[in-house]
Design a protein that fits this description.
three-stranded antiparallel beta sheet, 33 helices
């Protein structure tokens, strides 16, 4: 055996200073050397120094220490002892690492009898350390209880990676980087030699074969078996007998096997299979079982001091509830794996100009706030459960809710860091829309959560898919549409195979929500109907309620207000009452009903609905801030009092700026609407100008940015600044040219380009060209005249045509068109307090009066 020696007990003398480290005291020793507590004066912190015996400072022992340093240097994980430095000083080989005050898991187990949930929780945390090592291509090869530390802070850490090997040692080197020596790629022994501690070695280790992550899984299960049952899973009075039984898979049934759940014993036995391919596919899959099963099956237990399992979902770290002075503090470490200082730095680096830097600052602040709220909710849920104020069933739902929030956060962070330049505005919107952690503490909401099926395997699969759905939605909101849609498609296939109706309802609801974001109304309609059907059939009431609430809006967009059946609105209200009207859905329904009423011209009832939506959102305080800003916007557009309207727009703009940044499209949209709804044209122009300048500075051209310049041109013309108006129209034309070059179907933009070109030709007195452009725009718009927004475009064409004909002394030809345009403007004004429409209606009315007067004077 070339494993660590346990024979030498001679403690060497150590100097008072080793390198830059000041030795404080000796805290441990063994055959390889000593462990010292030392002080690092440069970084002002205490560290642990692992110091080799002088006689072992060469050859395999020295190599083993260097291997351990390189292995740990690859890892930065809460469940792995962190290495800081390695070096040689005065002939002494040392490694400086994180100082962990506490004890080994072996010592912890020896203190008293431990209940199985408490043991599983500690081992699951250690397993997360192994999972992190495997993720960077490392295999520990010597996992055992003595190498697992339980700190006084309650955190579990895996140590002693001296035998670690790199599965892909050469692949991890940078191709163009400096030449380095990988001690992990250097063999400690000749081919076929055996490394490790025999008691915990896998069959392939005993046989001297190639070792991979499955060997760590085997050792983990041996150690867990010993901890739970007090006996080794394989009998053997000698090393050879033990190795034989391990290789042949001769498991010895423990007498006290019934003291743990069967699912747990089955999971351990699978991890002890003699063939690596027969074990769990990965340590991660084993941890999913250890983390998920206790959440559904755990029963209350006491053994002296109450200990509490505090789990974080599959794919994350399991940080356990802590007895003593700092209970339930694992949430901070769990969320730090997703949102850390490194993540913040990466987010800041993404900003390439002052505008992006401002957005990055907003995103970082939002994610900091979210991480803090998540950790606090995590802790609150844990304490309630620990104090027996929350049942295990409710606790399971709360933790599942938190897991999904963490998965969504992870999706936002990873998309932000890996996304294309200029993606930060979308990330800001996704960060603002992350699921509220406070909802995971709301008993009424948790009572409405999807029921988990009794079969643990199916339940675990559903929990995993729900986390993936939450992450996919966040990735979509962060701007990675293609990746999110691909993932949703894969999830759809897996959900279909699973055949779980409530999960299918949730999938369809999320797909419908995202289709609305993309303005894919037919898909949104289909998916929302699917969600409604599946939810009603499986009594997933909260999904049914949201699906119906959103259907009211989608039907209105698709088919106009007449397309919304009054029974649909009644059904939405009924479903909402069934789930006790959660604030975000109640506000959304009030808003969507307001949209239907506004589209039908019932401004008084629309105003009432929008007021109700805003009141609910204001009182709740934790609805999606982007939706909250939309409620302010919709109410402002229906408010007739100019001061109140202005205050609502400004409040919405400030809310958007707080969550999305000063240069976000939504922030600018609200600023533009505030300017356009300002009665005094001079003030409106002053407010509009800086908004249009910011929009025009964007590298990509989009229709709202072009529209801003056109509206600004109208304001300049209204206050007599014709030169500024021409300049704004020229910029709008240039913007549209760029926008048409990058869009898949430029026909819509072509029609608007024709209108703007006609306006510019009018100001240049090129009247025939203006009429040609207006004819082209009208031909393209007329087939869609029944749509409200197209009707307004046609009215704009009629107004411009009347102005051109009036300049050509042919005004009477435009009278009928002007009357129709005024009727359209009046119809739309009945739906909202849009000052742009008022100005056009007033100009059309004045021009009509002039033309009618001219016609009367021309009649003999």
């Amino acid at each position: 055996m070339d494993g660590p020696s346990e024979g030498s007990s001679v403690v060497p003398d150590v100097p008072a200073r080793i390198g830059r480290y000041l030795v404080i005291e000796r805290i441990g020793h063994g055959g390889m050397g000593v462990v010292l507590e030392a002080f690092d004066p440069e970084l002002d912190r205490r560290v642990a120094l692992k110091l080799l015996h002088p006689e072992r400072a060469r050859g395999a022992s020295r190599l083993r220490l260097l291997r351990e340093a390189q292995a740990l240097a690859r890892l930065s994980h809460p469940n792995v002892v962190q290495v800081y430095d390695v070096g040689v000083s005065g002939g002494l080989v040392f490694m400086a690492m994180e100082l962990v005050r506490g004890q080994t898991i072996s010592q912890w187990l020896g203190e008293r009898t431990r209940a199985w949930p408490e043991i599983v929780e500690r081992f699951a945390a250690a397993g997360e350390g192994l999972r992190a090592a495997h993720a960077v291509g490392l295999v520990h090869r010597d996992f055992k209880p003595h190498n697992v530390l339980l700190g006084d802070d309650g955190r579990v850490r895996v140590a002693d990676f001296g035998l670690a090997s790199a599965e892909e040692a050469t692949a991890l080197a940078e191709p163009d980087g400096p030449s380095t020596h990988s001690y992990l790629a250097t063999s400690l022994t000749s081919t076929g030699a055996v490394l490790g501690t025999p008691r915990y070695m896998a069959p392939e280790q005993h046989a001297g074969l190639e070792v991979g992550p499955a060997a760590d899984q085997f050792a983990f299960c041996v150690a867990l078996h010993e901890a739970l049952f007090g006996v080794h899973p394989f009998e053997g009075s000698s090393r050879l007998a033990l190795a034989t039984n391990v290789i042949e898979g001769q498991l010895a049934e423990p007498r006290n096997a019934s003291t743990v759940p069967r699912w747990l014993y089955a999971a351990i036995r699978r991890g002890l299979a003699p063939a690596p391919e027969d074990r769990h596919p990965s340590i991660d899959r084993l941890l999913r079982i250890l983390e998920q099963e206790p959440l559904r099956r755990r029963r209350r237990w006491r053994a002296g001091v109450l200990s509490l399992a505090l789990a974080v979902g599959a794919g994350g770290t399991t940080l356990l509830g802590l007895a003593g002075n700092a209970p339930c503090t694992g949430g901070s470490a769990a969320i730090a794996e997703v949102w850390s200082d490194a993540s913040r730095d990466a987010m800041t680096i993404k900003a390439t100009n002052p505008e992006e830097a401002a957005t990055a600052e907003v995103v970082v602040r939002a994610l900091d706030d979210y991480a803090e709220a998540w950790s606090e909710s995590h802790r609150a849920v844990c304490i309630e459960h620990r104090d027996e104020a929350m049942s295990s069933e409710v606790f399971d739902s709360a933790m599942g809710c938190l897991h999904r929030g963490r998965a969504a956060l992870q999706g936002v962070v990873e998309t932000a860091i890996d996304g294309e330049p200029g993606s930060l505005p979308a990330v800001a919107g996704a960060a603002a829309g992350l699921p509220m952690p406070s909802h995971c503490r709301d008993r009424a909401r948790l009572a409405l959560d999807l029921d988990a099926p009794p079969d643990p395997t199916t339940a675990a699969a559903i929990a995993s898919l729900r986390e993936r759905l939450a992450r996919a939605e966040a990735v979509h909101d962060a701007g990675a549409l293609s990746a999110a849609i691909d993932e949703l498609s894969a999830i759809e296939d897996e959900v279909a195979v699973l055949g779980h109706a409530p999960l299918e309802a949730e999938r369809a609801l999320i797909a419908g929500r995202l289709a609305i974001v993309r303005s894919d109304w037919p898909l949104a309609q289909r998916e929302l109907m699917r969600a409604l059907e599946q939810a009603l059939g499986s009594r997933a009431d909260v999904i049914a309620a949201e699906a119906m609430v959103r259907t009211v809006f989608v039907d209105a967009v698709m088919d106009g207000p007449s397309g919304v059946d009054i029974r649909d609105e009644a059904m939405a209200h009924a479903l909402l009452e069934r789930v006790h009207s959660p604030a975000e859905l109640a506000a959304l329904l009030a808003n969507n009903v307001g949209v239907v009423r506004a589209l039908s011209g019932d401004r008084e009832r629309a105003l009432h609905s929008f007021q109700a939506a805003l009141a609910i959102a204001d009182e709740a305080g934790d609805v999606d801030p982007v939706e909250h800003a939309a409620y302010l916007q919709n109410l402002a557009r229906q408010t007739m009092d100019p001061d109140a309207r202005d205050a609502l727009f400004e409040r919405g703009r400030a809310l958007a700026e707080r969550w999305l940044g000063p240069a976000h499209e939504k922030t600018l949209e609200l600023a533009m609407l505030r300017a356009l709804h300002t009665i005094d044209p001079t003030t409106a122009t002053e407010r509009m100008t800086p908004v249009c300048e910011i929009m025009a500075s964007r590298p990509s051209a989009q229709w709202p940015r072009c529209l801003c310049k056109w509206r600004l041109a109208e304001l300049h013309e209204l206050i007599g600044a014709e030169s500024a108006a021409k300049n704004a129209l020229e910029q709008a034309t240039h913007c549209l040219d760029r926008a048409r070059a990058t869009t898949g179907d430029p026909s819509f933009l072509d029609l608007h380009a024709a209108k703007i070109a006609a306006h510019a030709s009018l100001l240049d007195a090129d009247h025939q060209r203006a009429l040609d452009d207006l004819d082209r725009a009208e031909r393209g718009l007329q087939p869609h005249a029944e749509l409200p927004w197209i009707a307004v475009d046609l009215a704009d064409v009629a107004l411009l045509r009347a102005r051109v004909l009036h300049a050509l002394q042919r005004g009477p030809e435009a009278i009928d068109g002007l009357r129709a345009a005024i009727a359209t403007y009046d119809e739309e004004i009945a739906k909202s307090e849009d000052r742009t429409l008022y100005r056009r209606r007033d100009r059309a009315t004045q021009l009509l009066a002039t033309l009618e007067a001219q016609r009367r004077s021309s009649i003999p």
